[in-house]
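Service request form, structural biology core

Requester: graduate student, group of Dr. S.
Request type: structure prediction, single chain
Budget code: on file
Notes: please return the result as structure tokens.

Sequence provided:
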Amino acid sequence: MTDLHQTLQDMRRPPTLVRAARFAAAGQKPLRQSRHDLLAKEEALNSARLSGAAHYSPTEHISILAALIQLAQNQGNRDAPIKENRPVLVARGGGLEIKSVPIAQINASGIAALRSAI
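Core staff response, request fulfilled:
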């Protein structure tokens, strides 16, 4: 079975289509379909695009590509090793406590972005 990242890199699609899919992947809810179903639909849509078929839908093509990009990103997040722990101050009762939290958990929470915005 080929890695999804490699499959996406091997695809040759118009730059505008890819940019739109990347933009959509950032804000779209994940589609609940298997990777193989998404790849099959994308291949069918790309064939329709290349042949100039009347039933080709650029909107659907962007949506499917965005879902594939999300799957690849999620696969990358799942495969990433958890790095060392980082001490974090946690409010407990009336005081503060130092707790050890994995860096991956801190990054996933978005707290770094929040702190930089303050």
